[in-house]
Design brief:
The structure is a homotrimer of 331-residue chains. Chain A is α/β, with parallel strands linked by helices. Chain A contains 6 helices and 36 strands. In chain A, the strands form 6 sheets. Chain A has a 9-stranded parallel beta sheet, with no helix packed on it. The longest helix of chain A is centred in the N-terminal third of the chain and has 16 residues, at 80-95. The N and C termini of chain A lie far apart (72 Å). Chains A, B, C: This is UDP-3-O-acylglucosamine N-acyltransferase.
Chain lengths: 331, 331, 331
């Protein structure tokens, strides 16, 4: 696997200072790159690694031109990280092995499902009755798309994904549960990526909706009738309960939980492991997570926490008991 | 897909005020229902939506009769939500497409497994040696039921479910781990629903047991030798560690964790994302979760939390230092 | 299924006091063991159960010899729990049914994949191009090993495992996300066990690495370029974000989260449901988890927690206001 620097800038642009004929055999992190590798400097804080790097060439921002030139060959481009992303795509496309069959013979596809001509369905996938798979969408191995669910164009579904299992709908009756049949489906837009073993449930009456450009990591649970806005991204192990409505351009950190029927405005960012218990209508970063500590310290603080409300009451009593006139440091 | 109002009340009961011949083409939420739709009012707080709804007919409780009559056709029934649940089942049964094969030819079923005559096994399922699947139970696609595991009657297992993988049993030895073979199995009662990609591990010596009527959402982990009592329900992403014993009629919110070897009495309700670290022997609602806040506020409070025990000590010192006689507001 | 006590000590050692010809029909927990069962006493605190046990024979430590002899037959061995682990392995090996085909005909294996002669590949597995599976490794049903990923010897991968799905790599651009192709793979050492539906993502440039002897429970997410050291064990539902480096001999409790790019030293133990937000360079037990309480108490304390920083400020003000001379109990 190799590309010349000249081929790279011809395909991706950027201002090359160095030998167009230089052969690049791999992409590598700055610190680990050898003389056959192309690396990138995403942030000025890694500038020390730049000087020390043995890379054949480094992708840098224009502001880093001088430091890069002092080291050797470089490509200057306004957004090195974005350039690197495009470079990984170029690398993959140039080195992709011959593709297997468009629809793997082991996949189980209902005759009524509509699979676009350019879509690819991997080994041991299941596409049920009435489902639709858009152009250039790829289902890796062992993906289930249940009946009547719709996947847009250029989506990528990783192994083990389950689209359109029943939402968790139950009516209590006489101490037991009566199933509410889930009559909706799932509608997924274009350019959506869904990580391994992630589940998106079908709606109860209306559909669960994932808009264009949404990116979901692995082992995420999306409940019935959730609506996820454009370009929102969620890290692994997130859970979103039924009927939550999440805006566009949001990010949810790993293991975050969003309770049901809540609304998150566009541009809300939830930190990892935080639990959203109320609607958040203002963009911003939100967090709720017990800080980790050595176990002994945690035990003391956690035990005290269970009396926190009482501490406040005692503080109030003290405040009442403390005459203002004796507070020498108070302005 | 359509049903007449007359057919619905003939099948499900309820007191119809309106035209028996009225054709219903879909079930819909109250706010979104058009003149072809049947909706329901589950709670008096939505009464404003009732008046504004364009539904052909609305299911209401007897107390709402007058308000419903002012709007148009209605069905009165003591528990509209339960009626709606039964209605979704009627709707599904009346509109179900012709069923595929009872056992999908792509499923891999050991000759010694016992599959009830009325059970259905979906595409690409695996049912191992000695497993038993009860009457009217349905395995959707890509479900694994491991050797000797037993599934009762009328159960529904969604795609990707794994029943009977090994429990996590390890004995430490010389810095490494020695596997404890898991010699038990999993026994699942009747009327159990298990969500997509949920896992229930086999027992170490005895069996892991899920009693009748339990409902598990997606991506739940049930460890070895856990016992889950009748009609308990768990939302997505719950984890229950080994040998926990959970009573009947409990609910666990999404992302809740139950540590190993604990006992939860009947009727214990654990809030989402809460961690059960001790047995809970009294019914009730239990919660433990850091409240979410904007990140800056969280940072301040979390940093202070790490000194909470010290704050209590300081408060105590102040209380000792503050003469009771100077507390004017104290009774 | 049966073994004589004599066969057991011949295979596993230990000092038998009792009849070598005694037939053992099952292994059982101490409290539940009947006259056909062999049980073990792992900890002196269960000594009451020892006296009451109806087991045919009990495995005990030498210190328990006297108490065990008072009851009946026993096997003395320095580490009864370890002995029990080996016994479960003996039991399984003696009672294993005839094995099915080494590579199940329903598995989809790329011709370029290298499967060791003694490896076993279960039903409906997928092993992609260039992947390698080591000697005596077992893939249970429905496991995916993606292209170029390497699994060592004597590993056990449970149903639904996904090795080598794409890491979650995205560059932001103009409000959307540009995919970073994941060009690395996954390298898994020897003697690794991976639980049902667990996912280990492939690296972005370098490989994700799981060292020898690592044990992962079910539904765990391991991000790209994570490095997990020898003999580290993780309980169910753990999430480890990209590029985290976890040492050897660590344990992570169920539902714990480790954020990206962090380092955990050897011998770090993280309690269940705790979130690691900073590198931990010192061995020890670490915890961060809101203590569970009845809901009403939690509500009060959680509400107060949101003002904790302010409470500290008020406490400081009081401390300033309280003259040291009036503190009668201060030394």
């Amino acid at each position: 696997m190799a590309l010349r620097l000249g081929e790279i800038v011809a395909a991706l642009g950027g201002e090359l200072h160095g030998d167009e004929g230089q052969i690049i055999e791999r992409l590598a992190p700055l610190a680990a790159a050898g003389p056959e590798a192309l690396a990138f400097l995403s942030h000025p804080k890694y500038i020390k690694e730049l000087a020390a790097s043995g890379a054949a060439c480094v992708i840098v921002s224009p502001a880093m031109r001088e430091a890069a030139a002092a080291r050797g060959a470089f490509i200057a481009t306004p957004d090195p990280y974005l350039y690197f992303a495009h470079l990984t795509q170029l690398w993959r496309s140039r080195h992709a092995p011959p593709e297997g069959p468009r629809i793997h013979p082991s996949a189980v596809i209902d005759p009524s499902a509509q699979i676009a001509d350019t879509a690819r369905i991997g080994a041991l996938c299941v596409v049920e009755r009435g489902a639709r798979i858009g152009e250039h969408t790829v289902l890796k191995s062992r993906v289930t798309v249940s009946e009547d669910c719709v996947i847009g164009a250029r989506c990528l579904l990783h192994p083990g994904v389950v689209i359109g299992a029943d939402g968790f709908g139950l009516a209590p009756h006489a101490g037991a549960w009566v199933k509410i049949e889930q009559l909706g489906a799932v509608r997924i837009g274009d350019d959506v990526e869904i990580g391994a073993n992630t589940c998106i449930d079908r709606g109860a009456l209306d559909d669960t909706v994932i808009e264009d450009g949404v990116k979901l990591d692995n082992l995420i649970q999306i409940g019935h009738n959730v609506h996820v806005g454009r370009n929102t991204a969620m890290a692994g192990c997130v859970g979103v309960a039924g009927s939550a409505r999440i805006g566009a351009g949001c990010t949810l950190g790993g293991g975050a939980i969003v309770l049901g029927h809540l609304e998150l405005a566009d541009g809300v960012h939830v930190s990892a492991a935080s639990v959203v218990t109320r609607s958040i209508l203002k963009p911003g970063q939100y967090t709720g997570m017990f800080p980790i500590d050595d176990n002994a310290a945690w035990e003391k603080n956690a035990a005290t926490l269970r009396h926190l409300h009482g501490l406040r009451e005692r503080l109030r009593a003290l405040e009442r008991a403390t005459p203002a006139r004796s507070q020498p440091n108070t302005p």
